[in-house]
Design brief:
One of its GO terms (molecular function) is phosphorelay response regulator activity. The protein is an alpha/beta fold. It has 2 domains: about 120 residues, Rossmann fold (3-Layer(aba) Sandwich); about 100 residues, Winged helix-like DNA-binding domain superfamily/Winged helix DNA-binding domain (Arc Repressor Mutant, subunit A), CATH 1.10.10.10. Helix 6 crosses helix 8. The termini are far apart. About 30% of the residues are buried.
Amino acid sequence: MNILVIEDDPSVRTLVKAVLEHNGNSVSTADNATDGEANAVGNDFDMIILDLGLPDGDGYEVCKNIRDKNVTTPVLILSGEQETDVKVKCLKVGADDYLTKPFNTEELIARMDAIKRRTESGGEQQLTCGELKVDLLKREFSIKSEKVQLTNNEFNLLVYFLKNRNRIITQEELAEKVWDIHFDTQTNYINVYISYLRKKIREHSEVDYIETIRKKGFVFRCE
């Protein structure tokens, strides 16, 4: 993979670069938010590893800005903060996963592999449900042949719903299977993302595909 590492701590940056290259990856680096964001927008990377604490900004803004510019490259955020609300905030700005410092290098590779699995098609090319169509290879979503822009997290959520249509899916299952993250699902995080997805579908369709089952979870109806 071609990977961008945005990290201001030289020791962490050197370690991550060495580990990734040892595993056969090509690695570019940046030590500040400005250069990192410019690299992320101007180049075609397979993954971005992004530190939260940067000298001229923070990783939240970098992630949000590149998502606003339609960069869909998977983002793994690194941070010394461990609180659940920090993890939730990272995901809300469009990150695909979160890893707490200090971290084991094996866990870093495992997290990256998990992101890769979630963003790959697994051999399938398309998923359809009524007027909805998902191209897994191009990672594109359309309704009535009109393309609908989704974030990585929204796209992965939709794909999981489509692959598990017509059955109840709990918040715990979504947290684990879509984001590979275990946290208190009593937070509003899952509901927020489902609300985002519902809103984008309803902007192009009159059908309510996502049904909330009280105290149980959600069903993506595709009869």
